[in-house]
Specification:
CATH architecture: 3-Layer(aba) Sandwich
Number of strands: 7
Strand content: 15-25%
Shape: globular
CATH class: Alpha Beta
Helix content: 40-55%
Structural class: alpha/beta
Distance between the termini: 29 Å
Largest sheet: 7 strands, parallel
Radius of gyration: 17 Å
């Protein structure tokens, strides 16, 4: 495990799934974790579980599509911990449908949460990270942002946009010692994938060279690496964690 002692990390969408696991793994690596979600009760349970294991975690609620609310989150974190070293833009939603049937509202909700939310988080931490001349910004995209997927035009566009946002952020902030990188998970075992039939799971696995659906810990391990000092010379990159499903 990479050493993140004395680091402070903000993770959006930390109430469940991949975000929850990222928060747990970053805490185990020594960081003080700020778990952010729209639902305070859900994210409080995550922070409580982490704290009961002997690590430092707090829960904060925020509508990440609201830039002012995100600024307030960052302000409260700096007041409490004096620093912000790691931002993980993980929060995301889906509203799947074919383009011809997709409503503008379903398009807007996904773009606002998945892409604008990451922009708001990045903007909110940038000034503080620039002052301290260090920081790690990690965006959770998807292989769908690289390949596209029928019925997910809004989701694919938001995740492809995250890759572009990551590269622009990396170029803007590199001179201040801040890195920005992107992780594109493939099929990961979550509550959502657990609802798939065994037949569909078998079809998915046929397209994964490593022959299995990934675990949230696979994504969290990459986050811990990119947040660590060992990754200090890596920026503007997108890492697929997908069992080899997408190869270029």
């Amino acid at each position: 495990m990479f050493n993140l002692e004395n680091k402070v990390a903000i993770i959006s969408g930390a109430s469940r799934g991949i975000g929850k696991t990222i928060a747990e793994q970053i805490a185990r690596a020594g960081a003080k974790v700020v778990c952010v979600s729209r639902s305070l009760s859900d994210v409080e349970r995550v922070a409580k579980d982490i704290s009961e294991q002997g690590f430092t975690a707090i829960a904060l609620t925020c509508d990440i599509t609201n830039g002012e609310q995100y600024q307030e989150i960052v302000k409260s974190v700096v007041e409490k911990f004096s620093t912000i070293d790691i931002l993980v833009n993980n929060a995301g939603v889906t509203k799947d449908n074919l383009i011809m049937r997709m409503s503008e509202d379903d398009w807007d909700v996904v773009i606002d949460t998945n892409l604008k939310g990451a922009f708001n988080g990045t903007k909110a931490v940038t000034r503080h990270m620039m002052k301290q001349r260090s920081g790690r910004i990690i965006n959770i995209s998807s292989v769908v942002g690289l390949t596209g997927n029928a019925g997910q035009a809004n989701y694919a566009a938001s995740k492809a946009g995250l890759i572009g946002l990551t590269k622009a952020t990396a170029k803007e902030l590199a001179s201040r010692g801040i890195t920005a990188n992107c992780i594109a998970p493939g099929y990961i075992e979550t509550d959502m994938t657990n609802q798939l039939s065994e037949k569909i799971k078998d079809t998915i696995i046929e397209h994964i060279p490593l022959g299995r659906i990934g675990q949230a810990t696979d994504i969290a391990a990459m986050v811990c690496f990119l947040a660590s000092d060992e990754a200090g010379y890596i920026t503007g990159q997108t890492f697929t964690v997908d069992g080899g499903m997408v190869m270029s």
